[in-house]
Amino acid sequence: MNLELSPKEFALFKNLIYQEFGIALSERKKTLVQTRLRKWVQSLGLPNYEALYKHVEQNPHELVLLADAITTNVTSFFREESQWLFLEKHIPKTYSKTKRLRIWSSACSSGQEPYTIAMFLQEILPDAHTWDIKILATDLSYDILKKAQQGHYRAKDLEGMPKKLMNKYFSKTPDGLYAISKQLKEMIVFRSFNLVTGNYKLFSRPFDCIFCRNVMIYFDKPTQEKVIDNLVNLISPKGLLLIGHSESITRHDARISSVSPSIYEKRGA
């Protein structure tokens, strides 16, 4: 069995990954791709990486497994503290009259982001039970979405979270994990969606807030611009787009303006 990824095989996967996920891989990523795909080749009993490529071509439903293999799902609760401080003032001030919120966590990974959003809203809105709140959480990977929907986390995943919130929104399971409360789960709908190739026309109504954090780092400039354009189209006037603190929107877009580092507001109608 040849487990050395040849230049030809790397080119095949590089083009497929870009075409399907918008992820641009440089030559420096060849070793990473080889390492990530080796177990998959071995588990299928294939002779080389080209055979794996043909397997994925013949079984397009397994493209999500390819996405799992070459991306890293790193997330945590209450990530990007400055954004939550901004939202703590912005949301009550902007939406207290209508008491209606539509939020999209567009790369939710294992669920920490959407559950943080739900927890956060319960904490900052004393009358949250009277609000019409819907949170959509999407990701490429079906496996990671299953974990998110289950909502079971290790003690390590909750490090840094105030004890008050742990006691209020989590319960200990017999196997030593922490299960998210039913109250928060009921606020969230989980779905699979590809930000690069997905059909944005599926979203019939705009969102008041879209989280798309630490996703753009995987894309080249044209793909970034395409994704941002689609996201901005789906934001309501005065709504927000939140990206990662290490990311920025470099192309001028007259529809949005920066209101805080990594936070952009859509101009009013």
Automatic annotation (TrEMBL):
Catalytic reaction(s) noted: L-glutamyl-[protein] + S-adenosyl-L-methionine = [protein]-L-glutamate 5-O-methyl ester + S-adenosyl-L-homocysteine
Pfam family, one: CheR
Residues of the CheR-type methyltransferase domain: 1-269
Protein name as catalogued: protein-glutamate O-methyltransferase
E.C. no: 2.1.1.80
Keywords associated with the record: Methyltransferase, S-adenosyl-L-methionine, Transferase
Taxonomic superkingdom: Bacteria
InterPro entries: Bact_Chemotaxis_MeTrfase, Chemotaxis_MeTrfase_CheR, CheR_C, CheR_MeTrfase, CheR_N, CheR_N_sf, SAM-dependent_MTases_sf
Enzyme class: transferase
